[in-house]
Amino acid sequence: MNTTFSCVGCGKCCNDHHVPLTLAEARMWAVDGGQVIVLVEGFLSSGLGVPAQQREHAERRSVAIRSGAAQAYVAITFAAYNVGACRNLDEDNLCRIYERRPLVCRIYPMEINPHIPLNPAAKECPPESWAQGPDLIVGSEWVDRELSDLILRSRQADRDDVQTKDAICARLGIRTTALKGDGFTAYLPDMAAFAAVIDQVAEQPPSAAASEWLFHVSGEDIAGQVVAAGAQVAVEVPVNYAFISLRTA
C-alpha cells in the first residue's frame, strides 16, 4: 500500500501544536521572542515506564539519572509553545520563517518515533492532502530519501543534545520528571534566562555524572510502584511546573 501526501496549506498543523526543537532551534526560538516549553518524561532502569520493545529507542534519546536509590532515564524535549496559531504564521497561513523553520516542521506529517506508524486518520491534514502528491511510503519503506534523512537527523539531534539539555535543566531548577506513559512535567522558563543558560552551558561542557531527579506521578498506585523500585516521588505542590497526565482511567 502506498501513502502519498501533498500539503494544501490549511495551516492546521501550525495551530495548537508544541513543535519539538533541536537545541540550536530552541535558542533561536527564544531569541526571536517565542516561548519554549520543556517537557520531561522518564522511566526506571528496571523497565518501569517503558515497553520492552521501545526501550532501546527510549534509552538512546535519554540521559541516565539517579532518583533516590534507583537508576533511571529522562527524555527532555524543548518545544515551541504554540497556544493557538504559531507566532510565525501569517494571515494567509504561510510561514514567515519558512527557509529556517524547525526540522520537525519540515518532517511533518511523518512520524519521528520509529514505534509510531504514520496514520493519516490521526493527522489534522484534510483528505485531499493524502489523495495527491509524491509517495512517502511504499509498503513499509520510506521512499522520499530527503525526508528520511531529515527524520534521521532529528533522531540524532535527540541523542546528541540530551546531556546538554540535562545540564540546562539543572541550572534552571528543572529536576522533576513524570513517568513515561503516565504523563509529562511541563515547564515554561523565562526566555532570557533560558537563552543565557544555553550559552553558559555551551562554554562549559556538562558533566557525565548522573544527576538527581524526582518523579511526579498521577496517583498512589503509580507512586507505590516507583517507590518500590527505589526512586523518589515528589510530594510538594508544584511551583515551577505543571503535570500533564496521560492517564485515561
Tell me what the structure shows:
With 249 residues, this protein is α+β, with helices and mostly antiparallel strands. It has one domain. It is 28% helix and 22% strand. The chain has helices at residues 23-31, 55-60, 103-107, 145-171, 191-203, 220-228; strands at residues 2-4, 19-21, 36-44, 63-67, 70-80, 135-138, 141-142, 176-179, 183-187, 211-212, 214-216, 242-245. The strands form 2 sheets. Strands 2, 3, 4, 5, 8, 9, 10, 11 and 12 form a 9-stranded mixed beta sheet that branches. The protein has a 3-stranded antiparallel beta sheet with strand order 1-6-7. Helix 1 packs across helix 5 (191-203) and helix 4 (145-171) crosses helix 5 (191-203). The mean pLDDT is 93.
Our count of domains comes out at: 1
End-to-end gap: 36 Å
Mean model confidence by pLDDT: 93
User: Can you write the helix and strand succession as a string?
Assistant: EEHEHEEHEEHEEHEEHE
Low-pLDDT stretches: none
